[in-house]
Specification:
Length: 344
């Protein structure tokens, strides 16, 4: 019998016989997948059985650990302050969370963002970066070079982990979400002390939270955001799930805008996105989305614990965003936007 078959047996023994993989079993299974030591039929069966069961925190931790070990990261590699997963894309609103990440970069909190870009009806980070005159990193090494220069780098999952990208794309083959959507958000290749991610289905927030604790992540923040990205929806309450010093915590923050006053734009206009960033146009929803997202990260960084002072600090950072400009990569040879002390 093929060695990988035992993992399929564990997941597929029927309603009374099946069980979740232990963390060690998940680690071993993903190691075999990473070595391509599985048959295509086995991989398909494994992914779909996982989808029917839904992944556990232990399984996510095991899968993530195995994939992390496939990265080639030097011990002297620059460590960002924040690892930001951005895999969902935006459909209803512009990617305001990206502006929050750029403000954090100018405030002394370097951000490594990673995600995907699909040809569908959603707007993904690379398109917004292009509108801002910024480029995605071409490799993990390229991202490591960008981070000390301007405090921000975006790395497509296809450049970070081609295997993970390949497994995510099985969604087009099966029509179902594979567990790698969960795992990709956890990868944190440069071991940032804070890992942040959004989810669309609230039950996955707890899975991410527990998996982060199992992996020894110093700090983490997970919440249901717009479209599944880590972006505050200003006219809704939000449940926050976090990890701090190995301890799990959760809290609820009240909405920032009255529901029903914001309408979905007819199309996602990146020119308007740039105008708001440059201060040439106003957008109440967009500005509150940026400020609200910044407040979430301020909470996760332990700069402010309560919602009101966190939002006050975030509003100050938004107003002062052009006093601390992001240094373009081509002009950053001698200036480090992320090198100064964090401005609180």
């Amino acid at each position: 019998m093929h060695a990988f078959a035992r993992f399929i047996q564990i997941l597929g023994k029927g309603r009374n016989g099946m069980r979740a993989l232990s963390r060690e079993e998940a680690y071993e299974a993903m190691q075999m997948i990473a070595r391509y030591d599985v048959e295509p039929e086995q991989l398909g069966a494994f992914l779909m059985l996982m989808r029917v069961k839904e992944e556990s925190a232990e399984e996510v931790a095991g899968f993530t650990q195995a994939l992390r070990e496939s990265f080639h990261v030097a011990e002297t590699a620059f460590q960002p302050a924040i690892d930001w997963a951005a895999y969902a894309g935006k459909k209803r609103q512009l990617p305001w969370f990206l502006l929050a990440a750029l403000i954090l970069a100018t405030r002394g909190y370097p951000v490594l963002m990673h995600g995907i870009n699909r040809s569908d009806d959603r707007l993904y980070v690379p398109e917004a970066l292009d509108a801002l005159g910024m480029e995605a990193a071409l490799s993990l090494q390229d991202a490591q070079a960008q981070l000390p220069l301007r405090g921000f780098a975006y790395l497509p999952i296809s450049k970070l982990s081609p295997l993970t990208a390949e497994l995510i794309e099985t969604r087009n083959l099966f029509g179902l979400r594979p567990p790698l959507h969960t795992v990709a958000r956890m990868l944190n290749p440069l071991s940032a002390p804070l890992s942040v991610m959004g989810v669309f289905h609230p039950n996955f927030a707890v899975i991410h939270q527990q998996a982060a604790a199992l992996l020894g992540q110093p700090a983490a923040l997970i919440c249901k955001g717009d479209g599944g990205e880590l972006e505050r929806i200003p006219d809704r309450d939000v449940e926050l799930y976090g990890v701090s010093g190995g301890e799990l915590w959760s809290t609820r923050w009240d909405k920032r805008m009255r529901p029903g006053v914001v309408t979905k734009p007819e199309r996602l206009n990146l020119y308007h996105f740039i105008q708001v960033w440059e201060g040439e146009a106003e957008d109440d929803y967009g500005e509150q989305a940026v400020i609200g997202t910044l407040a979430l990260i301020i909470r996760a960084l332990d700069l402010e614990a309560a919602a009101v002072p966190a939002h006050q600090l975030a509003e100050e950072w938004w107003r002062q965003r052009h006093q601390y400009p992001l240094v373009p990569l081509e002009r950053a040879e001698s200036t480090c936007a992320c090198g100064r002390a964090a401005t609180v």
